[in-house]
């Protein structure tokens, strides 16, 4: 059942051209396909043509214009096989498919009356018979025919060649994509849509038409996405010299969508959550996500579409690289420090646990049962870190030279991770063979760091060991090539010029040390005074740092580190150590370090207010969990909440004056970085104050809720009201619902906020949400807002000792799996970490998984559940 990288065979047949004709209808759509097929001279396999196909009703099949007798082909459940076909021929097929019945949201499906497609990874085979693999690249011409009133807009990839009326009152459109592409990038849309348009002039002076298609009531939520798109297009020209290549760039907002968005050539489809935004209904976080996802999908045009994948094992070749480009883009467009912190937070709270658990896999996996299960934190986020390390090791100029060669050499090809590294090597004359291990070995490496200052010799000795724990199927690991960025700070917090033993003179103050062995020793000389080490600056590698030092040194770095990431991280380390020790001792006394760290930030916030807000954040519960051998969900929550309340009380006046200093209601529609920063800082203050649970803070939250004109402020106030036992909780939630009942994306927030509410009775509340008339198992956003949020963001109740949270999730996964296996498999993942919990919880999680395994489940869910039980 498992597919393995080592079994890769080049395709036996190429398809040069595809002509598709769709008779579109929600219940039954007719798909006619004409493929121009040609033998691949490089393949020595037998001359059978094997086409993928699932849930297709074959009506007709013709070879070179003549009907094919049933004896000349074999129809299996998921394949169509034509033995002994000629060197070159035309194959025509006609199939029927049923979009309205397609709840998996893969292939052609119906979303709010609109017909649309999702083909990555293997959805095209649910549309027509085809060699549905990314290394078969073809030119597509697509004819769409449909009822004109129901489907006035007809879109597909590329350029519009023709459109008009048909005799029977229907209309048609013909689209052609001049660029060869793999089938996973195919897309079509038919619906009653309106559009907002704009233009972008490329660096060579071509004018590109930009179109964003939405339902008419969302026309007021388009500006930000269009603006983001123009910024992304300009950025990719400036930063990478990459220009857009078609005359038209279309984006369509879709309300039922399994993932965030899809980079189909010239016709991106977006989860409406990742594209629609205006200040009244979307938060600042939403605005930032729109910028990021619009950028991400746009950057795929070069890293993914023009250069695509040989096979799905190479997924990170496009995803890791594109996430890295997206990160660079967002860092350039707003606050570098904030974006880096958010990325590392995500990596450490979500990817690190994946690497420690039964689903651990390398950035380039070597086997899978269902490829959709490998759109993971490891492939995306760790994959991006791997590209970032290359950039750190080579430096930006040399990295860019490598990228230029990669684009030049592989444009129009379907390639591998090795091809990418080879371009980096050849452009720079370096050997990256050891670096390849980041793609092939799973697990998070540990860096054990010890240092010693010798006052007499005036030397600073730095010893670093690396090792990596075993992961499923990989008991031993070879050392990685790890860039470790270091600086030494003097007692005033100034960077010291660095001179390694053997060097004639100091060379700058920041060094990238490249570790290639299991043990390294570095000796810095001429160090006049005892320094403080700032290491792994900007999180230069996705590793766990193990460095024991007195709290005072972390505290010093929290105030003085010259690297904004490390400064924030020092605070997180310090607070984590304090809180973890309190969980151990089962006691909680406010540590004076915390108040001393927070007070100056409140009294004199840094110029970057959003960054200041992050410095004032306690480590997330899942970050604390990640650092415990046996996760104590109750202890973590109790200790963290106590710290929050005590900090609120100890610094009450500071929180309050900082709140008022940054409360600018008149800025509600301003989404500049500065205004967002002020709102973030203010709402951070509000969340601390709300924990005080007294009339003054109740008033403050309610006042903000009532007067807020933007969703950021309204939701922050609502969160303070919901999560901190406010007397007006019930009526405010009801008010919010009434106000926004016609905005599904806002109602998702209403569901999510309640699913995350940690106060007692959570399970009952979640049951009620699941029974609410607006809950819909067919809408992934709604399902994630309730089940996903409950399992990930309400740990105390999801992990209730009696197993009731696990049971609820398993019950609903069984329902969901019959509708949408891809989403079910994803939502099952919180159960897979069972080994990290105490025996009682572990047993109950195991039972829930066991129950799923016994049921009749999809292969998507089966892969997750069995690996979790075995791993
Ligand atoms: N390529 C898309 C993106 O990252 C993700 C699509 C994944 N879809 C899926 N069914 N697994 O931009
Ligand atoms: Zn992507």
Which descriptors would you attach to this protein?
871 residues, alpha+beta, 8-stranded mixed sheet, 5-stranded mixed sheet, globular, binds arginine, binds zinc ion
Your description of this structure?
With 871 residues, the chain is of the alpha+beta class. Helices cover 41% and strands 21% of the residues. The protein contains 27 helices and 31 strands. The strands form eight sheets. The chain has an eight-stranded mixed β-sheet, with no helix packed on it. The protein has a five-stranded mixed β-sheet with strand order 17-18-19-21-20, with helices on one face. β14 and β15 (170-181) form a beta hairpin. The protein is globular, with a radius of gyration of 28 Å. It starts with a strand and ends with a helix. Bound molecules: arginine (ARG) and zinc ion. Residues 296, 300, 319, 322 line the site of zinc ion.
